[in-house]
Records
---
Amino acid sequence: MNTVLQAQGLGKKYGRRWALSDCTLDVPAGRVVGLVGPNGAGKSTLLHLAVGMLTPTSGSITVLGEAAGTSQRAKVGFVAQDTPTYNRMSVADHLRLGARLNPGWDESIATKRIERLGLDLKQRAGRLSGGQRAQLALTLGISKRPELLVLDEPVAALDPLARREFLQDLMEAVAEQELSVVLSSHLVSDVERSCDFLIVLVDSRVQVSGEIETLLATHYRISGPRRDEKSLPSAQHVISASHTDRQSTLVIRTEQPILDPAWTVSRLSLEDLVLAYMGRTSAPEQNNHRPVLEVQR
Amino acid sequence: MIWLTWRQFRLQAVVVLTAVLLIGFVLLLTGPGLLHSYQVNKSSFLDQLEFQQWNKRLYIVGLVALYAAPPVIGAFWGAPLIARELEAGTHRLVWTQSISRRKWLLTKLGLTGAAAVVATGLLSLAVSRWSDPVDDAVAAGQSGSFVPRLWPSVFAARGIVPIGYTAFAFALGVAIGLLVRRSLVGVAITLAVVIAVQIFTPMVLRPHLITPAKASAVVTTENMRGLQIQGSPTSPLVKGLEVELGRPGDWKLSDQTVNAAGKVQKSLPAWFGACAPPPPGAEDSKEPRQSLDACFQRLASEGYRQQISYVPANRFWDLQWRETGVFVALAFLLAGFSFWRIRRDLT
């Protein structure tokens, strides 16, 4: 199977507000996907749809080849936002919960992880630090031996050190178990450290998605004398533009070399790239003229 | 899932089951003694009981325990069942394991509900059996401070009705918790609603569950139990009379005065006001009052009668089954609602 997550015109409405609209995605297997966007952009909604906590208002979402929220529950691990655990249950109780509720539970993975993390089995989860709790939730998610692991802002509440440890640990598990991972964050640095596939979600819409390497290779910042962005060659898609009286600075996406000598061309960092897309908040009409941005392979 | 249900439920379970077992144990110890004293001296059993403070208290304890069981179980077993998960966000943990939400709820609702039914059933069995001699003596017409088991204050603390109430209260608590998503709010609302249902059922629902028997009687000084007087002491108006049928175990639903044509009277004829005794404290008026006997004779000769509808004592189990059926059906409806709601989005 080459696709772990596929969405077609996926939308979710809460009352009158669309939390996610017209989302079309295709995430290949074996990737670590970073889902970034500002708070309230619809990241959690998308992930909840993927694990079957929510049902779509429109469109469809397929996970591991089946409609989300059906029998593939056993093949998808989920670490929810704020990593909820049962405060009054011990670490050992949580492992027992995992073992009882998951037919594919791997006890050796679980105990090894808990040992390595130095968690006390008798400790109540309510007494754990935020980092330890996140690790416990991750252990539950990993030990059921999923094919896809979904993490909703797993490190948002952690301090920088715990954040780094958690992500490192996650990457080790990914390498050992050949997992596909989708993880959301509002910080690009988290994604930069651990992901190889990027989805940018702003204002309930997917702005861009693709391999990070490819994205970085096809996006440029160009600056030069002031000129209208409409005069660019059609193969160059303008992502963001800023103009002063004399100068124009554009972020563009193109697969072809930039030939115009008037431009000073520079590469973008991942952060700059994400920020350029995040700036395009009021873009729906513009989007309608162009096909949904997707990197060709 | 069975293990998880028990793990999350054990504290609440132990508290309630301990209380039930404690009460059951005491009743089991004292019951044979009570039964013995009834068998030895049937005719003056209730008179004797007046002097047995302990047994009188136990009688009250049994009543209170069975009236407390539905609200307590509904509020503290039912309401937090789902609300606690939604409040702490742990539903996102447990619903994304390999088990479906439906099965999760089925196990939790089934096991906890079964425990609720068993606990209340045992309690009711213990209390009903313990109180049997008292109920028998009351039904046999002995007078005292006890009332028949068909009367509203006792009916829901006997037999199988408590089981129906508890099943209903539990399912209601679960559904309310699912709706309000806050344990504490769910507990408060459940308590209020269940207690309201307990108060209003005898007045609103119970009389409609069974066709009452009818009887009519001419009022005499022997069978009159009371009269309801309105107006000033100088010109009193008698609104109604109450008679006794000499069937101590029955539950009287209504007692109305009808005239010769069979029409229900809002009040007795004006002349009857002169028969009414003066209000306490006030001295008798100038003219001598007519004797009640003469008044009742005139009433009878003018064709006035009392029309009574009542539930006979022997229909106790009929009514028990019907009321239990109603509440068990409501419990299933509420559980069905919870299953329907939980399939929809909850984040």
---
Amino acid sequence: MKEIDTRGLACPAPVLLVKETLDREQPDTLLVRVDNEAARENVSRFLASRGFTPQSDGAGADIVITTAAGRNVEQSHEESGSAEPRERANNRKIMVLIGSETIGAGDNELGAKLMTAFIKTLKEMGGELWRLVFINGGVKLVATGSPVLADLLAYQQRGLMILACGTCLNHYGLMAEKQCGQTTNMLDIVTAMQLADKVITFG
Amino acid sequence: MLISSATADDAGVYQVSPDLALVQTVDFFTPVVDDPYDFGRIAAANALSDVYAMGGTPKMAMNIVAYPMAKLGALVLRSILAGGADKLREAGAVLLGGHSIEDDELKFGMAVTGFVHPAKIWANQGLKPGDQLILTKSLGTGIINTAIKGGLAKPETVKSLTEQMAELNKNAAEVLRDFPISACTDVTGFGLIGHLCEMIADTGRRVTLDSGAVPILPEAREFAAMGLVPAGAHNNRKFRENMVSLASGFDPVVRDILYDPQTSGGLLFGCAEQIAPALRRRLADCGVLAAVIGQVESEGAVGLFVR
């Protein structure tokens, strides 16, 4: 956890110090020490505006602000002065949930081709694509032998969070074969659905 | 001596003869924008403002300069002084001289002397029940200055902020002279609420401030929501909190804007409801903002109520 000590500084210096640290290091969690109520309020407000969930403890000259759950809005800030397009600039979060290795019913060979095409084309969503979650037969797509493994690894490289259901990987005996993404559970999936602005279920 | 610092008025007033009094004021500060010429204009407009807020006409001024010559060189100083001189010219006042010292941190401002008729001084206090409260510039300069320091303000935001701060309260004051206003001040370091509290402190008046009608500079709200609030706003709040009642659930972001210390802020005055429309029309004709932001109540508990 990144720690920032702003004690002895008058507003807005604590906020500006936290901002500099965020711009430079992009830490997932933070601990900020402040020594007055105004700084507590300003730093908490600033962290909230950057997608953190700040909590503070203590009083007077010994207040500690921590960010509990990490940030849920990644790098959406426009005014960082950078010329390159920001990830998810308009801030919408799309979660795609894939429940099978094929798309639709009728012919499984066609369904597998459609799924391959779907995964390859997903990049057109750009920065709005926020989470790619695989459940049931879908987990085969993150395991050895998957026709889209290279694509998924490339997405992951670019910062997309890929999740695969642990229960499902176990069920198919694929835990050791998983080649990309993080193992997840139903609570994670439900929480992600709640945080997402849009959930697309496919397969 | 007609008015001194005892009543927290904007300037001191000293009577010279039955029909002439001197208005004296001084103000200087560190740069609020990067451009030296603009800083000079803003510092001068800010120093002149106290004379206008008393109902006076600025007549002469002296520069006050603290300057790191080795670090910044003569050209920057010349630009600052040129900005100040241009504003004095616009105000119709003359520069008599000044004083400079070598200092690590740049500061610029002016001591200004104006004339006023002793019977036509606008004091801070004097609001009457039924009066409307009118403000002539938008709030948020302290918050945006904070954002500029953090490198967050867009160039167009800096531009609109600069133009507002460099605008003299001259046109506004000249219009007000034709109307029987009850009290006047300019909104500066104590923020809107702080100056409103000065106007009603110990007077037994009840004032309602309608926060939705208060003009706010572009982006000030966004920056306040990011926590870019100067320490002065929090100090202003601590100082006046006991006189102020906020509506329940009042947005703390707007609250901070109402307490935000202003540089070269607008005039804040009261006038009877009947004359307010004509007065506002005249101000609008002169290109001056005139927002009705509240009123003086005729009954109810004493203090400032913000909704």
